[in-house]
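Second attempt. The first submission of Triosephosphate isomerase had a stray character pasted in from the spreadsheet, which I only caught after the job came back as garbage. Lesson logged: always re-copy from the clean sequence file. Corrected sequence (248 aa) follows.
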Amino acid sequence: MLWIGTSFKMTKTRAEAAEYAARLRYGVGENGIPGVQPFLIPPATAIADVAALLDGSPVLVGAQNAHWEDSGAWTGEISVPQVADAGADIVEIGHSERREHFAETDATVALKVRATLRHGLIPLVCCGESAEVFAGGGSTEHVLAQVGAALDGLDDTSRVLIAYEPVWAIGEHGREPRPEEIAGVHQALRDEWGDRVAAVLYGGSVNRANAEALLRVPGVDGLFIGRAAWDVENLLTILANAPTAVTT
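This time the job returned cleanly.
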């Protein structure tokens, strides 16, 4: 099964997210795309609206973050039970922007993974190295350490999704990777975690032009797409072409 989806980050109003979700549902169809699991991660303000529109469809809905405690004096935070109540199936955890700007650490990532699993949701664990680590040849070691810390001690990781997103490839100024530049990390993730997690995705400068080539990299089980998928037609094109990409 290929997992393919997008996070809106801090974009789109409730109305814009709802319009996107409605078009996505129509484009995917009620029976979905064989061999592909689509997902959509809107901002917290739109989770309930998007989940209602996608209810009963093949598209899963996610949250961009959730706290590790179920409740308490954590002003401004949202718990896993709360995002589940809003309709989320997936919780995105440990994105590099959360690590850089909001002091997310390997320790807090691990706590959030456990909270997400405890409540029956799917953790989408993000990992990735900086340009400096990449240039120094330490990508594989860095990424395996991040994932190892996030999943350490868990008896069952079969519902976990891993998203490898090299920091040098994500964002508005990210550099599009060559397939061979990500192949080593994906092979290492497959060797270490391939039979213990639901899927290992790639994310970072994914677009309509390179999606099929990235899906053909050994160890890539899907795509976590950024701004290229904020236009729903781009995501629908990538979803429609994905099954062909992995059979050719």
